[in-house]
């Protein structure tokens, strides 16, 4: 078996990188393929990251991984080739990640119709799995799509129970629940040697969606509570999106430093998480290490998903 991961688009996004290591290890244990081909924005970037953090990969995986770039021009070509059944990866076992799957709030064909349109060969042959959420099915077109596809998936790996129920509703036989894809990586004892930092510090994160004057003031008040006893570190989870807000936050918190995780190993960054004492954050993904490492936190996000996870923690 050869596996093609139709997913890894987010370039220099920390949590996507952690989940990448989990996914590769999961697929290795479950299917033991002879090769992984992974779509990425930058092959050189991902090759450098897996070489730097190879201890997070199970034995024998590193030499199996090939990266292919999915920039705009190459993506259009791949889509055209796939539609005509001349894609050289046509017979590979496909892994469709969340950005490739179903979301009825997105426009056609990105609501999920791109699967039967562009990947009809593997759908027809039942030669694929789905990973992440199975979104709402309020629309008639979504219900029809679910009826056509979900029961054909070799496996559906979900991150919450509603997706499990929805998958089974449409006839899926093999549904797996992983509420936190990152947990195995964060708790990888063989690859992380934790040392307590001598400094006391807090971590601060804010994403574009929640970058508002009200939330910036919340961060300022949060920071003021610690005066000069703690270091304040800004953690840009998505370097492409979050980093540009550092200078704005620093105007109110002059002693704020930035941690560029792209310049550090994954072990170093996880050590940072384990050593901090407080967080203030807005990204859903940062609820996971908070829960796993039992950290104090303040939340400035207001989505239903985050509130449910906080209440269940």
Question: How would you portray this structure in words?
Answer:
The chain is built from 13 helices and twelve strands. By secondary structure, it is an alpha/beta fold. It has two domains: 2-186, Rossmann fold (3-Layer(aba) Sandwich); 201-312, Rossmann fold (3-Layer(aba) Sandwich). The strands form two sheets. The protein has a seven-stranded parallel beta sheet with strand order 3-2-1-4-5-6-7, sandwiched between helices. Strands 10-9-8-11-12 form a five-stranded parallel beta sheet. Helix 12 (287-292) links the parallel strand 11 (278-281) and strand 12 (296-299). The two termini are 38 Å apart. The model has no long low-confidence stretch (mean pLDDT 85).
